[in-house]
């Protein structure tokens, strides 16, 4: 039975929900984040706020929440020409992928997370990737996660488990999962303190949280929140 986990934690809604689930399941949980010179770098500040709020508002989890690690991945920003790393408009590319796709991002994140997990003695890596809400990101697919789990386990000669709690649920169900884990208090924390907006907008407050309201991430979050508020059929 696994008792330790490393959560890939961006400071957004999905990774915060994954963190809450990990804290409810594992005895020791650490977090890792990445500064790749993302356009929405405000999320790096949100990470620390959310972690502090989790420790303060959920004392039952505070003792399980261990060290946070932030890695400098400026090189990813240097090799990426996307709307998340450059000041360009969001659009679909001729390849059929949105230009918010950062090639190799999750593959690099997981590789470095595994290296850290190896050193820290952490057994499970938790990431908030999802296939249900279409993002167009091939590195969020279940097949990709399974392939990475196998490659990392073989390459480091250590059995790793990549846990993807959100893989088969939509954004409305992600809100419901958060509520089931931490009630209204966790939902409120996600609304007030997490950050998802690709433009880094913290000026405009909506019912579902802060953001521009028009970028793909905001639209998805807003649509999911509306679904969350609807009564169950």
Name the descriptors.
233 residues, alpha/beta, Rossmann fold, 5-stranded parallel sheet, two-stranded antiparallel sheet, 8 helices, 7 strands, 46% helix, 13% strand
Specify the CATH class. Answer: Alpha Beta
| CATH topology descriptor | Rossmann fold
Number of contiguous helices: 8
CATH superfamily: HUPs
Radius of gyration: 17 Å
Order of helices and strands: EHEHHEHHEHEHEEH
Name the CATH architecture.
Answer: 3-Layer(aba) Sandwich
Ranges with pLDDT <50 over ≥5 residues?
82-87, 89-94, 96-100
- Name the average pLDDT: 87
Query: How does the overall form come out from the CA principal axes?
Result: globular
Approximate helicity band: 40-55%
Q: Count structural domains.
A: 1
First-residue to last-residue Cα separation? 36 Å
Report on the biggest sheet.
5 strands, parallel
Structural class: alpha/beta
Strand content: 5-15%
Q: In words, what does this structure look like?
A:
- The protein has helices spanning 13-25, 42-57, 59-62, 74-79, 105-120, 142-156, 171-193, 216-229; strands at 4-8, 28-35, 65-72, 124-126, 161-163, 205-206, 209-210.
- With 233 residues, the chain is α/β, with parallel strands linked by helices.
- It has one domain (4-192): HUPs (Rossmann fold).
- Strands 3-2-1-4-5 form a five-stranded parallel sheet, sandwiched between helices.
- Strand 4 (124-126), helix 6 and strand 5 form a beta-alpha-beta unit.
- Helix 2 crosses helix 7 (171-193).
- The chain is globular and about 45 Å long.
- The chain starts with a strand and ends with a helix.
- The relative contact order is 0.16.
